[in-house]
Amino acid sequence: MGSRKSFKIAEIVDSSFSQKKCIALFHEYAPPNDPETIGPEGMEKFCEDIGVEPENVVMLVLAWKMEAKQMGFFTKSEWLRGLKDMECDSIDKIRNKIDSLRSLLNDPGVFKSIYRYAYDFARDKDQRSMDIDTAKAMLQLLLGRMWLHYSSFHQFLEQSKYKVINKDQWCNVLEFSRTIKSDLSNYDEDGAWPVLLDEFVEWLSLQQNFPNLKQSFSNSQY
Length: 222
Hints:
The protein is mainly alpha-helical. Helix content is 63%, strand content 4%. It has 12 helices and 4 strands, in the order ααβααβαααβααβααα.
């Protein structure tokens, strides 16, 4: 009876969150010359310790949890915010949360929030728009496995004139991927889609055999 009680107490202690331990963990990755911020080197070591590649989508979800402002950096306040919410003050506890972090992407509402967050998180803070190479990398991370036309869209961006993606275009790509059928039959060229997506649909209709769309665009000004 006594040993069972001891086990339960140990379990409660283990599951509790210690801010002191969490801060001590932070300082294992923050450099001495900037003790308030984990930079790229510390981030690489952190990823290694939790067994996740830096470009894994789990790192984006973790950054979203922390409300991190800049890719490749965690401030102490961001670290505390995210890890306190997750009740993690050790590497083992963070490792044990990886599957649940990944599973958040299965919730459409949460996914939309993470997708929108990714735009401001990944873009160069000196620019209002996201450069096209960063956009392609982030789209691959977020939509690569779930959007049938992702590879075609990537191809389209490769050969297009676009050098940057603005936030409206970014958000509409997600809506397009969720609402437009694989044969594009419900795409309305007179709808409120950005020109970027009109051009993508026109380009795709010429690449693949969508006769109705071909006819429609041949009668338009494109």
